[in-house]
Amino acid sequence: MGSATAHRKNVIVLGAGVVGLTTALKIQEQRGYNVSLLADVLPSDEKSTKYTSHWAGAHHVLNVTEDARQQKMDLETFKVMWELSAPGTETEQYFKRIVQTEYYTNTKLLPPLDRMPNYKVLAPETLPTGIVHGSSFSTLTIDTPKYLAYLAARLVSAGGQLVRGSVQHIDQVLEGGAGIFTPNRTPARPDAVVVCTGLGTRFLGGIEDKDMHPIRGQTVLVRAPWIDFGRTIGAENSWTYVIARHSGDVILGGTRSVDDWYPLPRPETTRDILERTFAMCPELAPPEVRAQRKPTIEDVLPLVIEEGCGFRPARTGGIRLDVEWRGAGKGAKKVPVVFNYGHGGYGFQSSWGSANIALKLLEEAMAGKF
Ligand SMILES: Cc1cc2nc3c(=O)[nH]c(=O)nc-3n(C[C@H](O)[C@H](O)[C@H](O)COP(=O)(O)OP(=O)(O)OC[C@H]3O[C@@H](n4cnc5c(N)ncnc54)[C@H](O)[C@@H]3O)c2cc1C
After folding, report:
1. Which residues pair with 11 in a beta bridge?
2. Is the CB of 348 under 6 A from ligand 1?
3. Segment 170-180 mean pLDDT
4. Cβ neighbourhood burial of 99 (10 Å; 0-12, 13-18, 19+)
5. pLDDT tens digits, 122-133
6. Which residues are listed for FAD binding in this entry (predicted)?
7. What is d(CA 302, CA 170) in angstroms, rounded to the nearest whole number?
8. Interval between CA 17 and ligand 1 midpoint (Å)
9. What CATH number has the domain bearing residue 273?
């Protein structure tokens, strides 16, 4: 081991969703750290409700109305993703720059979208029936499974490591580090731990944050490469959206059911999503069909690739971003434990901003500022 490596601080990041991956990357790419990312589900695994990040649409829309910290995180993330999505870059394939149209059935639901690039309020006479406000702006969508794989690869090429392990209690990693889960078992106390375990934080021993709860979201993935825009209707009790990805696949949604733990897509909800999205966006039917006759929902059914659902890791009180000092084992030195979890429905669009805060908290703690 070279002396530069030997002097680095060993940091364990727990959780390999978009929040853990981005936070681990941010720390690893900062000089002076060796990051081990430890998680029981990794981005290359099959999709399940134990890992929300696979299920996100995802688009970036500044839809948080009152939380200034969240707005700042979202804006910082937008800036990073806008650069990553620039035409001609190697990373543009994980994103699609689009024109997004947002319709609302009630002006009370309106978020501060006017900060999005090319924001325009749509003329009232152009709005569909039942819509009282419409706007359009430029934004980007994220091909989430591919983007997560990219983050993991970038972490490894920056010198970080990915370790699989199911942590029962935070003390396990405070005493043994990620080494307790590696094949040759090399326990070592880390210099710091960062907790990005999403909904799992509700069950992680020593933390067990009961403010964490799921907001279940069901989606349908279709193959419709002719769709090159995003469209949403925000209503009091439902959000209907179409999110086009770079690959030509399109995510249709959505649902928001609080404290709903059912882990499989419900067939009647899939049908409801298809009906709502087709009513909002008849362009989902293939162009050759639309050229000949009025399309029906039957024209969209053969395009379905996947139905799925994920649990948005929501936290009463918002995202937890703070530090505690903890030690495990008799007489153990306390080390900083940084928390970054509870991103609800905005984990992608706040990922870089919240990772910036987590890194700052870590650096200040390591420098003995608190
Ligand atoms: C249908 C749907 C649509 C969405 N659309 C958008 C969108 O358009 N834009 C947007 O920004 N967001 C969107 N989201 C929200 C976004 O998906 C989440 O906010 C984000 O994925 C949360 O990431 P995370 O890293 O916190 O959690 P997760 O992705 O769930 O990752 C948690 C990680 O922690 C690990 N872990 C947990 N407990 C333990 C333990 N005890 N031991 C070891 N490892 C553990 C897990 O294995 C996993 O690796 C959407 C979500 C859904 C469901």
Report:
1. 35, 192
2. yes
3. 96
4. middle
5. 999 999 999 999
6. 52-53, 167, 197
7. 47
8. 5
9. 3.40.50.720
Please name the residue that has the structure tokens 């005493």: 175
What is the SS3 assignment for 126? helix
What whole-number distance in Å separates Cα of residue 191 and Cα of residue 366? 9
Collapse the DSSP code of 273 into the 3-class scheme (helix H, G, I; strand E, B; otherwise coil) and give the result.
helix
Position 137 pLDDT exceeds 60: yes
Q: Ligand 1: which atom is nearest the Cα of residue 308?
A: 1
Tokens of residue 331, six digits = 């007489």
Instruction: Report whether 13 belongs to an annotated binding site.
Output: no
Interval between CA 263 and ligand 1 midpoint (Å): 14
| Structural domain count, the chain | 1
d(CA 82, CA 67): 22
- Both tokens of 235, joined, read 């209503």
Mean pLDDT of 24-46: 97
Spatial CA neighbour of 174 closest among 205, 153, 200: 205
Q: Which residue's CA is the nearest one to ligand 1's atom 41? A: 167
For the stretch 255-266, pLDDT in tens is 999 999 999 999
| Cα 178 to middle of ligand 1, angstroms | 21
Which residue segment(s) compose the domain that 339 sits in? 3-366
- Could you identify the residue written with the tokens 């495990």? 328
- Interior CA angle at 185 toward 181 and 189, to 5°? 80
Give yes or no for a contact between 254 and 267, defined as CB atoms under 8 angstroms apart: no
The pLDDT assigned to 313 comes to 98
pLDDT exceeds 80 at position 194: yes
